[in-house]
């Protein structure tokens, strides 16, 4: 594929910039793309964790199948971390940032550029990720100690995260800044999570400039809390996500009603537990916001609601600190409300003991817990303890990569492997994709439509191949000239 492309500009000569796809290539997690300029400068876009196996990407039962090219992904690099000059992050989700502590531990010495909110979220989310990896390794080793299996070591520790924090340089949206004399960057809001941005680069090589834009994850218009996604400046080359490139989401108007029906069926009719896997920051607040609307409208049955997440409490302050990421109405609500993410009957559970105590509750309740894809964190314990009870319901409100526990449940599996045990799926599994933080085909196309005249090539990343092929076909039908689906490790010269 190393065929230089002739630029469609007035002057005829070749420019040899390279883009290497080092993660989320024909996969949904592990976002990581390397740009190498003609002068050798190396810029990494995202440095995410692959979340299809166990938390450090090694194969576990029921997840990454043997022979999967992603096996061991999190432990190795498609480049030398010491050679990377700059890292630019699109947003704080762990599948876009979760290997940054390892990158630093393995020799990266440069600056990390992100929006202000992404920097703030990374500080707490990477620390949480390290704690999850430490405690999962400890739990795994304790459970397996009689089986003579090799000990599991965390991919990185909380100590490694301290090496990351002072490398951040953060900027607001809509503010061009230079990361190198020849490279300027603009963050523009994608409305996906707090602080999420497209990364728009203008790279000067000789007397030419190349415009390269990376969508990061594209959010959805008209959702509560966040701003609508904003189209990127016109670009020559685009690296674009593909998560829902093949489908249209349910429309939102019935969302509250549908949500209420699931609550009623599970907690009133079946007298069971409603368990909602959700990212601690972002989706959890959105679910709590909806529950509080139902509560204050007098529609929510009188059942206890638990947010089982040590991170969710800290999130309130981060949200209030970043009005630039949300619509005015919700920001005013956050400032004015006595308890913006709470209501009578809702309890935040910080401690491990408190989380374990939820197992002993034998009455209807709602538990919101992370991680959203159910590949790590407290939600795995809730699945272990509740999946074999038909009174319970797992309500899936976010995207789950196919090889994660959440993805396996979404596929309709009748049994799952959790902590080395085979469990029957007797609980109901209900999906509500209208909550998705990812735009669907039409929403992503609207986001990209201003690029038709300028885009020389679009590279599709962050999607399963079947969805990417449909997304590519759709974009080409709509008039985009050239759309590629690169493979993992492929390097393309432009
Ligand atoms: Zn994301």
Explain this structure.
With 494 residues, the chain is an alpha/beta fold. 27% of the residues lie in helices and 21% in strands. The protein has two domains: 18-247 and 438-493, Ribonuclease Z/Hydroxyacylglutathione hydrolase-like (Metallo-beta-lactamase, Chain A, 4-Layer Sandwich), CATH 3.60.15.10; 252-435, 3-Layer(aba) Sandwich (Rossmann fold). The strands form four sheets. Strands 6-5-4-3-2-1-22 form a seven-stranded mixed beta sheet. It has a seven-stranded mixed beta sheet with strand order 7-8-9-10-11-20-21, with helices on one face. A six-stranded parallel beta sheet has the order 14-13-15-12-16-19, sandwiched between helices. Helix 3 (116-143) packs antiparallel against helix 4 (158-165) and helix 3 (116-143) packs antiparallel against helix 7 (312-320). Bound molecules: zinc ion.
**Strand order of the main beta sheet, please?**
6-5-4-3-2-1-22
Bound small molecules, deduplicated? zinc ion
Count of runs of 4 or more consecutive helical residues: 13
Low-confidence stretches: 1-13, 54-65
CATH class of the largest domain: Alpha Beta
Which range does the strand content fall in?
15-25%
Mean pLDDT: 88
**Major β-sheet, in short?**
7 strands, mixed
Cα distance, first to last residue?
10 Å
Count up the domains: 2
Q: What integer value in Å does the Rg equal? A: 22 Å
Helical content stands at: 25-40%
3D shape = globular
| Strands, total number | 22
The CATH architecture of the largest domain = 4-Layer Sandwich
CATH topology of the largest domain: Metallo-beta-lactamase, Chain A
CATH H-tier superfamily of the largest domain: Ribonuclease Z/Hydroxyacylglutathione hydrolase-like
Instruction: Decide which structural class fits the backbone.
Output: alpha/beta
């Amino acid at each position: 594929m190393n065929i230089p492309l002739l630029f469609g500009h007035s002057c005829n000569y070749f420019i040899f910039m390279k883009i290497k796809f080092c993660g989320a290539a024909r996969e949904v997690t592990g976002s990581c793309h390397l740009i190498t300029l003609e002068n050798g400068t190396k810029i990494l876009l995202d440095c995410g964790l692959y979340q299809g196996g166990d938390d450090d990407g090694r194969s576990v039962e029921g997840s990454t199948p043997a022979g999967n090219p992603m096996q061991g992904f999190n432990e190795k690099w498609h480049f030398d971390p010491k050679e990377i000059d700059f890292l630019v992050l699109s947003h704080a989700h762990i599948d876009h940032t979760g290997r940054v502590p390892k990158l630093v531990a393995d020799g990266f010495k440069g600056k990390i550029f992100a929006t202000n909110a992404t920097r703030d979220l990374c500080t707490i989310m990477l620390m949480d990720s390290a704690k999850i990896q430490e405690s999962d390794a400890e739990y795994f080793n304790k459970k397996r100690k009689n089986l003579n299996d090799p000990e599991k070591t965390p991919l990185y520790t909380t100590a490694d995260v301290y090496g990351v924090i002072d490398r951040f340089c953060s900027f607001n949206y809509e503010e061009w800044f230079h990361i190198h004399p020849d490279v300027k960057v603009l963050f523009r809001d994608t409305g996906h999570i707090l602080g999420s941005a497209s990364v728009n680069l203008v790279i000067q090589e000789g007397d030419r400039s190349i415009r390269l834009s990376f969508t990061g994850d594209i959010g959805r218009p008209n959702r509560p809390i966040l701003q609508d996604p904003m189209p990127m400046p016109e670009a020559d080359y685009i690296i674009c996500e593909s998560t829902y490139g093949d489908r249209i989401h349910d429309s939102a108007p019935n969302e509250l009603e549908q949500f209420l029906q699931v609550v009623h069926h599970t907690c009133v009719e079946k007298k069971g537990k409603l368990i909602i896997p959700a990212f601690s920051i972002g989706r959890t607040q959105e679910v709590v916001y909806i529950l509080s609307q139902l509560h204050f409208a007098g529609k929510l049955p009188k059942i206890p609601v638990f947010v089982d997440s040590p991170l969710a409490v800290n999130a309130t302050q981060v949200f209030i600190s970043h009005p630039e990421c949300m619509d005015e109405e919700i920001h005013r609500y956050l400032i004015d409300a006595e308890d913006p993410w709470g209501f009578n009957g809702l309890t935040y559970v910080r401690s491990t003991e408190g989380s374990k105590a939820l197992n002993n509750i034998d009455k209807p309740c709602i538990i919101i817990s992370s991680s959203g894809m159910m590949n790590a964190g407290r939600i795995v314990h809730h699945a272990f303890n509740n999946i074999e009870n038909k009174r319970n319901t797992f309500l899936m409100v976010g995207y789950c990569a196919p090889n994660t526990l959440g993805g396996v449940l979404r596929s309709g599996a009748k049994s799952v492997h959790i902590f080395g045990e085979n469990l029957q799926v007797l609980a109901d599994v209900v999906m509500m994709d209208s909550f998705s933080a990812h735009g669907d085909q039409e929403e992503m196309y609207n986001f990209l439509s201003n690029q038709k005249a300028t885009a020389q090539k679009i590279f599709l990343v962050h999607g399963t191949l079947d969805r990417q092929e449909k997304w590519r076909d759709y974009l080409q039908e709509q008039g985009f000239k050239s759309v590629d689906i690169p493979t993992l490790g492929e390097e393309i010269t432009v």
